[in-house]
Amino acid sequence: MLVPLAQNLVSGILVGALYGLAAVGLSLTFGVTKFLNVAHGELLMFGGYASFWVFSLLGVDPFLTLPSTILFLLLIGVLLYKLLFSRMIKLTEEAKVKNTMLIAFGLSLILQNIALRLWTADDRAITTTYSRLALTAFGVRLPVVRLASLVIALVCLLALHLFLQRTYTGKAIRATVEDWAAATLVGIDIHRVYLVSFILGVVLAGVAGALVSVGYSIMPTMGLEWTLIALIVMVLGGLGNIMGTFVGGLILGVTQSATSYFVGGTYREVVGLLIFVLVLVFRPQGLFGTKQG
Amino acid sequence: MSRYHDPRGATNDENAHKGLGYGARKHFQGGKLVALAALLVALALLAAFPLLVKRENIVNLGCLVLLYVALASSWNILGGYTGQTNLGHAAFFGLGTLATRLLWRAGTPLWLSLPASGCLAVAFALLIGLPAFRLRGAYFAIGTLALAQILYVTVGNVFPTISALPPKVLASYQLLPRYYLFLGLALFTVATSYFLARSRLGLGMMAVREEEDAAESLGVSALRHKLLALSLSAFLAGLAGGAFAYYHVGYYPQLPFAPVWTFDSVMMAYLGGTGTTIGPVIGAAFFVVVKEFLALRLVDLHQIVFGVLFILVVLFLPGGLVEAWARLQRALARRSQRRGPGLAGSEARSGPAKSE
Asked: What letter would DSSP give residue B253?
């Protein structure tokens, strides 16, 4: 009785770390630029396939495919920003959110169908020689691959945290979140801040996708589900709150696992969405956010 | 300012007709007669369509166009007129299919099942309306998307098996009554949308869209207008769902709840022109016909074409095809003005100034 429950909890935490990582990217982009990139899940899916491709064509270890995946997503991010999203900078906030959402919605359709063309509709997963390895503690299995993913997710978060706290660009990003007009006045290049934030969001989605393809499985239609997950976690954690967002991811992961355990796996998705709607309506600043004007 | 990014430039053009100056009034009334005649001809053609074209696949395509006209037009009431981007439209459509399928298959006559579909959708709309309208803008959009997804997954869990028509019904299945049901549905929806846009209620909705706080200050209750728009939109989508349940031979009950119904509705409304009556109609016809054409030639790549088209419309043509047409007319008017300033000049000048 206790062991299966603990197993569920652990699984929830492991998948929750990926939720957190996926959501941090979305939250960063949205918090800084107010671009509501609902193609985030599709970009995550592209990250997964990028790793899958390099792994299956070149036989590279999945965790070593991360640099190439990051590079690939970086290029996509720059392209999307220059081509589409940079046109939205000058709009008012409300119009920016709405128009970027619509554009990203068209984009998700495009990306999803490109993926269908390139990689077919099948479920794919990266299976390595050590995929089945697991540590066992008190009867609870800890798959090595997922543990490694958790570590990588934590490293990414730490790196992001240090980047935002210690570097000039990071400080510029935070200043822009606080007050973009004042940031411009003190000489911060808003366009660069927007570009960097957008690309960081895309790259983080890609890393999350790569990790999903290793520990779980990917398919071209996974985008919407992951976009919703990222949105749920973003709202749970509160905008622009990196640690809060990550904890939000863990909460969602554990809640989903608990739901699978007590109610049934088919309602996994529903419980997250329910929480999402409730939080949106009753606590729009997020669980860990403080009320702002 | 708001004109630039809000995809509804065409509404202004449409309303602008009412403001045409003295010189144009006579011409306009003649135009009204012509429009009426064109409408009657179009109706006659639509009614005769399945009799003239006997090929079943073409009639089916006609059914699809009419269904999509109803879906896009009903979405437009909340999404276009009232400016609330609703990404949960599939929920209303799906609930409509559920009600009619269950009632009609259990022996309830169709004329009772269909309104029940509409009412079920309205009941759900009212249930979610109050909490959802606490959210503004994008939060409303993703909130409604989440609600629709909840229903999508839940219905899939509760009704996991395919819903096929009983053999007795299948044996006597006829396409013609289905076509006319869809035609009636589309006409009813478009007529509702048309008269709404010209009513006090519709104007209130547009006021809420343009500037919620300003509308409130003039005594237009934003919440009331949003709820009414949502209910009306849901009712019509529910009816569309009922017609779909009567039409479709066999499908998984989850299917009509799929987000693609919402996304298609949004896309059609934007392609044609949101906030206008005719926009979603044009958008739906364009969408279905072009999609069919492309699907035959490009297989799954047609979705990419629509994705690109949609992005282009949002970026460069926020009023959709309706705006493209208006721009074309303006360009033509300018040309004829240059050629013969004495003739067409007065008419062109009498229109309200355009900020372009």
From this structure: T
Cβ atoms of residues B309 and B286 within 8 Å? no
Q: Does A4 touch chain B (CB under 8 A)?
A: no
ipTM for this model: 0.89
The CATH architecture annotation of domain B2-350 reads Orthogonal Bundle (1.10)
Q: Residues in chain B, how many?
A: 356
CB of A65 within 8 Å of any CB in chain B?
Answer: no
Give the three-class secondary structure for B250. Answer: strand
Angle at B313 between CA B311 and CA B316, to 5 degrees: 100
Cβ-nearest to A113 among B132, B270, B301? B301
How many other β-carbons are positioned within 10 Å of the β-carbon of residue B284?
A: 28
**Region for A292 from its dihedrals, namely left if φ exceeds 0, alpha if ψ lies in -120 to 50, beta otherwise:** beta
The residue written with tokens 């011409």 in the block is B27
| Confidence tier at B218 by pLDDT (50, 70, 90) | confident
Tokens of B171: 């044996």
Helix pair angle (B138-158, A223-237), 10° resolution? 120
Q: Are B257 and B94 in contact (CB under 8 A)?
A: yes
Q: Which is nearest to A245 in space by CA: A204, A278, A286?
A: A286
Chain A interface disruption, residue of B84, B124, B147, B149, most A CBs within 10 A = B149
pLDDT (tens digit, 9 = 90+) per residue, B51-82? 888 788 899 999 999 999 999 999 999 999 99
Give which of B97, B237, B261, B236 is closest to B163, Cα–Cα.
Answer: B97
Give the largest CA-CA distance in chain B: 71
A98 close to B (CB below 8 A): yes
- Map residue A263 onto helix, strand or coil: coil
| Residue B251: strand, helix, or coil | strand
**Interatomic CA distance for residues A155 and A169, integer angstroms:** 19
